Structures are given as C-alpha cells and as structure tokens.
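TASK: fixed-backbone design
INPUT:
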C-alpha cells in the first residue's frame, strides 16, 4: 500500500481513495539526524568503491496524505562533517580541490515537486546546491513505515538513492592513472536513510 493513496476496489481505476491511516500522517516533521544517514559511494582507481557519509545534517518534511504533490522536503548538510574513515582523504574532500568547506559550508536540497511512482516509492524532485552551483535533482524514496517510539514520538521512515555526476556541480578534481582511467569516477551514488519525527 502506498503512503498517500490506494486504489478503491469498487470504483473506477482513475479514482483514488485516501487511506485514513495514511492520511493521519499528514503534518510537519523534523529529520532526526541521530537516526538518519546521508551517504555516498564513488568508484576509486577504477577497481573499488569508496563509501562515506555526512554526519551532520538537519531538515524538515511536510507530508500531505491527501495530495502527495503538496509534500515538501528541505535538507541542509554540513560539508565539514564528511567522513570516509581516512583522515587525509576527508581533509582533501573538505579542501578547495573538492567541496571547499571553508567557503561553502553547506550543501542544500529544496524540493519543488513530489509524485508517486508505484508501490511505496515516491520521486522527490528539487534543487541541489553544492558550492555555488544549483542544479535539479530527483530522489526516489521508499516509504519504510511509521511508528510511535518509546518516547511517544510519531515517526516516519524513508530510504532511497540518487545518482549524480559530480562535475555538474563543479567537483572536477581528478588524477590520471598510469594504466589508463582516472582516480575518482565522475558518477556518485547518494543514499538516504531518513527517520523523521512529527511536530506537535
């Protein structure tokens, strides 16, 4: 069953009924950074993958159970929080060759539209800003469920991914390999595991 709507079994296919349980999720949410992750995977030296994450981020969601197109998302990511497990590599990523975190401390995403694409999956389209470049980005998110935690917080969860070309945002540093190819691939996979708490 989808997050926002389901097809009625007794009405024409074009008619959508709002599930009361899912409609009850309508509201404003704050992303719980301590139980969420924003990560990335990039090909290194043509032979393996390097994985990393941004450990500091904050954001808000507005879910509309009656009309998913009115749902919105806003996320700010602290660039200096990037981590891959190797201190020298992380310092390089924070530096001017890549993110230039001192001049551009935040990466931002602001949604412009939302739509169901089948089952529990929704496509959130918006604008991603890295450094001084803003470009469109679509993220496919799967609704992972809702629950009330032990503290009485109403939570929702989403997980998903997107692929970008880092060069589209001016992240072009690279080094040629003797055997051919380059040190860092242009294609980067972004991953999202989001837990958000409903506001009173």
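OUTPUT:
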């Amino acid at each position: 069953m989808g997050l926002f709507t389901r097809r009625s079994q007794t009405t024409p296919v074009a008619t959508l009924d709002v599930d009361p349980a899912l409609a009850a999720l309508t509201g404003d949410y704050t992303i719980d950074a301590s139980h969420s992750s924003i990560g990335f995977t990039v090909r290194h030296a043509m032979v393996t993958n390097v994985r990393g994450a941004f450990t500091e981020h904050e954001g808000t969601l507005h879910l509309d159970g009656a009309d998913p197109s009115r749902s919105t998302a806003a996320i700010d990511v602290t660039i200096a929080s990037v981590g891959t497990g190797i201190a020298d590599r992380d310092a390089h990523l924070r530096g001017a060759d890549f993110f230039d975190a001192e001049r551009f401390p935040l990466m931002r995403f602001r949604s412009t539209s939302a739509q169901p694409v089948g089952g529990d999956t929704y496509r959130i389209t918006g604008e991603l800003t890295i450094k001084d470049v803003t470009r469109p980005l679509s993220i496919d998110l799967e609704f992972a469920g809702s629950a009330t935690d032990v503290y009485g917080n109403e939570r929702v969860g989403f997980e998903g991914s997107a692929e970008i070309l880092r060069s589209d945002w001016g992240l072009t540093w690279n080094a040629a390999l003797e055997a051919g190819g380059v040190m860092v691939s242009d294609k980067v996979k972004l991953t999202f595991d989001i837990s958000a708490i409903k506001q009173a």
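COMMENT: The radius of gyration is 19 Å.
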